[in-house]
Design a protein that fits this description.
alpha/beta; Rossmann fold; two-stranded antiparallel sheet; 10 helices; binds zinc ion
Length: 240
């Protein structure tokens, strides 16, 4: 009963918030964006169909990612899929996704990654980059898990829930300089509870933003140590 009442109160508080602080599409400014994604359908579709973006996505080896990965000679992804450069509007969408609770963006990120990845990879186990547990508790969700879950379901592949984890705390990447980012990620991750599911299998690792490549390289090292076969990665954006 109390729970029901609280739900009703919560519903009305949300409605009042919606009236006081209406949601606008971050691109065209139009009110009531599509299903709380902070971008309207038209703007998202014109972004993903922009010839420059289509061309960016289709390039087999994205030069910007290749260049960053040269710093990690042991990292050898078969291919890294990426939706676009970390420029407007993708950068703002990712920030809203991570920090402002726009969890529904996972659906359109995953849908677009699916369009890019389908028929391009063999059967894979889908893994996602973990979060530091405290950070995840504060945020209430792991954004890469949300993308990976939607993507796994679109691709009809298995999501490995606990494939890799952080061994110990480190400073959030956002507070670090470029060289700190590269060095401080080394040996921070380890295999987690369900890791045996990846042994002898192909793996696709999902992350949100490819900045230095340090996080994905560390994930690669751990996944490889778990006996994975071919390893792919999928990210929403890459900083250029
Ligand atoms: Zn719009």
């Amino acid at each position: 009963m109390v729970k029901k009442l609280l739900k009703i109160i919560y519903f009305f508080i949300c409605k009042i918030f919606e009236i006081l602080f209406p949601l606008n599409c971050i691109v065209c400014g139009k009110l009531q964006p599509w299903n709380e994604k902070c971008i309207c359908r038209q703007c998202w579709e014109s972004y993903v169909n922009d010839p420059e973006i289509v061309n960016f996505q289709k390039r087999l080896s994205l030069p910007v990612i290749q260049k960053k990965l040269r710093k990690f000679p042991e990292t050898d992804f078969v291919r890294v899929f990426c939706l676009g450069p970390y420029d407007f509007p993708l950068n703002d969408l990712v920030k809203n996704f991570k920090y402002n609770g726009f969890k529904n963006l996972a659906e359109i990120f995953a849908e677009q990654l699916y369009q890019l990845i389908k028929n391009q990879i063999p059967q894979c186990k889908i893994l996602y980059v973990p979060m530091i547990p405290k950070q995840q508790r504060d945020r209430g969700y792991n954004q890469t898990f949300l993308i990976a879950r939607n993507l796994a379901s679109a691709l009809s592949m298995d999501l490995v829930n606990r494939g890799i984890k952080f061994k110990y705390k480190h400073k959030p990447q956002v507070d670090c300089s470029y060289s700190q980012r590269i060095n401080q990620m080394k040996n921070t991750m380890a295999l987690s509870g369900d890791w045996e599911q990846i042994t002898g299998k192909n793996v696709l690792v999902v992350d949100d933003v490819f900045t230095t490549g340090a996080t994905l390289s560390e994930a690669y090292r751990v996944v490889k140590s778990g006996g994975a076969n071919q390893i792919y990665a999928a990210v929403v954006a890459v900083t250029v």
